[in-house]
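Work through what follows:
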Amino acid sequence: MTENNPHTVELDKPLQRGEQTITHITVTPPPDSGALRGVRLSELMQLNVEALAIVLPRITTPTLTQHDVYRLAPADLVELSSKVVDFLLPKSARENTPTV
């Protein structure tokens, strides 16, 4: 597993935001636990959409809005969610987790 570095995800279904087409989203590790306020960690680990809609706007580039999160294709949401979960794991767990 990789270090706790930003992950760029290529969207299967690009998001259209006005004139802007978003094809890639970079998910950056939260700098501290403050980026996770307002959600239960268990909800993030369970890929709860509402919890992800709160956290993803805080750690993505371009910055997703909650509305954007709800408009993501399910496969894209799962891919972004897996990056969030990866950031929540301790280093020892990331090192012992096989890559897919």
About this structure: The radius of gyration is 13 Å. DSSP finds five helices and three strands in the chain. The first strand starts at residue 7 and ends at 17. The mean pLDDT is 89.
